[in-house]
Model the fold of this input.
Amino acid sequence: MLTQGRWPVRRLLLLVWFATAFGGVFFARDLQFVVAGWPFGFWFAAQGSMLVFIAIVAFFAWVKNRQSGNDEMGFDLIAYAIYKRRLHRTFVTYLAYLLVFLLTLTWAEQLGLSKQWVGSIFLFATVVLYAVIGIYNRTSDAEEYYVAGRRIPAIYNGMATAADWMSAASFISLAGGLYLQGFSGAGSQPGGLAYVLGWTGGFCLVALLVAPRLRELGLYTIPDFFANRFGGFWPRRIAALATVLCSFTYVVAQIYGVGLITSRLTGVHFEIGILLGLGGVLVCSFLGGMRAVTWTQVTQYVVLILAFLIPVSWLAYKQLGNPLAPLVYGQQLERLTQLEKQLMNSPAEQQVIQEYARRAHEYEMKLLNVEASLKEDRTRLQDRLRLLNAERADTEEIFAAKRELIRLPKDEVAARESWTHAMQENLNRAKPLGGMPSHSQPFAGDPNGTSEEQEAFDLSRRNFLALMFCLMVGTAGMPHLLTRFYTTPTVSEARTSVAWSLFFIALLYLAAPALAVLVKFEVMSHLVGQNIETLPTWLAQWARVDGSLLSINDVNGDHVLQFSELKLGADLVMLATPELGGLPYVVSGLVAAGGLAAALSTADGLLLTIGNALARDLYVLAKKDNRASAMRQVMLSKFALLVVALIAAYVAAQKSADILYLVTSSFSLAGSAFVPVMVLGIFWSKTSRVGAVAGMLTGVGVTVYYMLANSGSVRSAMGVEGSGLWFGIQPVSAGVFGIAAGFVMTVLLSLVTLSGRQEKEERQSHL
Done:
């Protein structure tokens, strides 16, 4: 039984965390005074709060480690120190070789090495490096495969955790999301700095509530905790299923990122790119488990952090004369605001907005009678095709007419869905700045405006807080993250490891808001206003990779690019930054390699977590198969990992949703499935098995229901109209309801079962 005494330090730090995260955001609109060139509210949300989070985690580790001392080490401290020095030498050698490799490729490009060769060399060299590490660290020993022998020093576990954490969503999509969503997102759709706050503030919960307690138990997987704490058959099985659910959603996003980057680097098809990148994932996680994955992630962290910081530093130096982007990009916020105002008042931009509004109205008219509109469109296109054939028109024109006819929806259901989406897309773009919010403005609407503006403000702030809450709590429940803290030698090292993890993560997260501002300024001041025929060639190259990532449509027909005519997807902004800034293609290759490292590192950890949950927790231990040896458990985990990887690759190839949305959904699922029961199980001794099972099922059930019930495709298929939102909260933040429901159900049923046990014991005593 896990019982805890008084915890004043933890309570104080939790109070500081809550005030920093939620208080700073709640009053962000009131903190618009300028300090040293920065709007204080923006600076505090983008940077100040993160610095407070790092201080909280580091201070907690320092205090608790001083109290516990190093007596728990239980092994030769001298040998451990020698081991760490050897690791330091190896790491420095690797870093030196990586820098030499980059300089050599830069020199080769100047001598005439083609871009295709540069991209292929980056892909080949990095994947081979990860594969060699996987082969070198191959193992079938359970302790090594599941938890890397529990001998990873805190600083290296921090790097590995940071790489595991900073997935394709962080590297590829975070800066792009900030570019599109500004401070808080557009309208009631939350985003922006909620991701920065959520994904860093959650580490305070990991450090203060979860990681040290899990490490004390010396377990292998997260479902192990539920079996150890509550016993019985169902807690482990439900925890294993929940692990698979949230991790699979997450890993699909990573594999999509792998395909996106690999296809851009090599020019192969998207699906082939997925398979090429997947090979690197499987070699590491399949052969060596956590031991191979850990050291692969350490090398990947160095690649991805260099790949992120070099372009943003270059853009900052180019625009402001100072490469320290996080310190100086505040100067561009005021200029960016002026550019936004100029574009809003531009007559050409107004023409584009009017055209998008006209197209939206056209789709709205079609939706009034879908059957007749579809029949009319088909007849019109068929007549046009017959006329072109009769006139023996140009072959290319005939093929274009055929393609248009083929793309026509096949039936009424498909037409309704397609036209509804097109109408909404045009309505969104029939707004100033193509529907994007003013970058530095906290929340939509106006708290001092009309009743509609006040309602819009409240709804926007409410959704921002809900999303941030889900990301923070989901961080504390993400299985592949928590498993990383099983790999440290001691509980003290686990605490220190959380602090190092947040530090290494912050190096990228402090730079991401800077990159979004610098890229937006570059686009508005240099790309907008150019003749469309003379735009840089990289725009067309990226458009060919995936039309949803980048599209240019000369809506008003003036052959000049307006800001509203350019659509950049969130998954493109970071990858295209080197080309946007005019950097050598080697940097583009490095950025792509960094994105690949981010996606592969997280995919490694996720696939390993899923494989272990399926084979070890769900199949072997949940069935109480005592004949299954440790070797057999490892082999079953490897087989499950391979199968899941192939399924995830197939799902990712369908391009069903963008990376950021998939990842965010997995956080809502993880938070609602694990955190209520886990925290109550650690800190409340009365938490019962029945309460735990009911809490997990309720949390996941409510979250999944809310996501599906408010999915546009599901509502359209069922013919449901209107909004099914509760309190206006968007489905991506469904975890806010699942987490609350999980807590309430766990407490209520734990109290009921406790009361029942007490009554039974009293009856037995009377007998």
